[in-house]
Amino acid sequence: MNVYGVLWLAAVALSLLWSAPAAACPVCASSAGPTVVQALQEAERAVMATLEADGRPRVIEVIKGGGAVGESLDLLIRPAVPTSGPARPVETPTLVMVKSSAGGGWSLVGPLDARRAPWLRTMAQLPAAAGLSSAGWVERIRQFLPLLEDAEPLVAETAYGEISKAPYGAMRAVRHQLDGARLARWTETPALADRRPLYLLLLGLSGTPDDAQRIERQLLQPSLAMTRPDLPALAAALLEMGGVERLAWLETHWLLNDDRPVSLLQQVLVALSVHGGEQGRIPRQAIVQSYLRFIERRPRLGGLVAQDLATWGIWEATPLYAQAIQLPDAPIASRVAMAQYLRVSPHPAAREALRQAIGR
Which residues, in sequence order, are CB contacts of 230 under 8 Å at separation 6+? Predict the structure, then answer.
């Protein structure tokens, strides 16, 4: 089978993936691991405990699943307890412990002040993120916003992790509750670099013209790292702040700029995809027009936006893709995406273009 036959098979295999909706906002690219909420939801039992002199945890608070205060857990923990954030100067930390519902043993979630026991019980009662409605996500964000960068590292990590899983539309719904000045400080704090994508995204919803100019300068830096995790968030924040005018700016400096590495261009396109999917600050049709100009100017990379156009039912790109898929030096991933677009396009030219490409 020639390479074009492979394209057809790959396009068919990708069709189910294209139809699968994404809940969490891809711009955040959360670096957080499982949060306290997830650990409690998956646990059969959960307690707060202190360490005895022999290294055994003794229960001081029952959070979930029964047991008794004073119970000694069948587990030994070394005194140097790892934390989920900056170290706290505590001699005898109170530990959050969970026991797996799958029949496993006890495991350590992290240290937490005993006075947070009521908060833990509330966390254990929260519904699973997978089943949340749009209104449920908005409420979830509002619940955790005040806890971002809480003095307790475990609480702060949980707030960050839970909000970063939310859809962008839910974040937009709470924009008037965001503290732009505080978010701006956090985006410039080196110790919070891992959380910067989320804080940039929220800053885009609450920032000032000065914040927008600072983000624009960062997007123009010639020495952007090849694997900069906050690049999609930078672009998304700029679009949120500047609307269609900033879309034109990104089109000029990124989409139509041949000097931009493809790996970085893909990250900027994630931001356009999110905005087009939400149809909020920027009309989807404006993003579609930018996509069409991108395909026309850089046809070999046109497949980078094919999935969005197909998902949105935009078939105006069919003639452009019918020509671009014939280019022999287009990247294979771009060709596969073009083939998938042509496979589902109702345009009369689509089938013939795909037949010619496969038959070559």
Answer: 196, 197, 200
Are the CB atoms for 114 and 60 separated by under 8 Å?
yes
Name residue 72's beta-bridge partners: 58
Answer whether 0.90 is exceeded by the pTM.
Answer: no
CB-neighbour burial class of residue 141 (10 A; exposed 0-12, middle 13-18, buried 19+): buried
Contact 318, 343 (CB under 8 A): no
The C-alpha atoms of residue 346 and residue 158 are separated, in whole angstroms, by 46
How far apart are alpha carbons 265 and 305 in whole angstroms? 11
pLDDT in tens, the chain (360 residues): 343 343 433 443 344 334 444 456 677 655 556 789 999 998 999 999 999 888 889 999 999 998 899 999 887 776 544 445 554 444 568 999 999 876 678 989 999 999 999 999 999 999 998 889 999 999 999 999 999 999 999 999 999 999 999 999 999 999 999 999 999 999 999 999 999 999 999 999 999 999 999 999 999 887 665 557 789 999 999 999 999 999 999 999 999 999 888 989 999 999 999 999 988 889 999 999 999 999 999 999 999 999 999 999 999 999 999 999 989 888 999 999 999 999 999 998 888 888 887 765
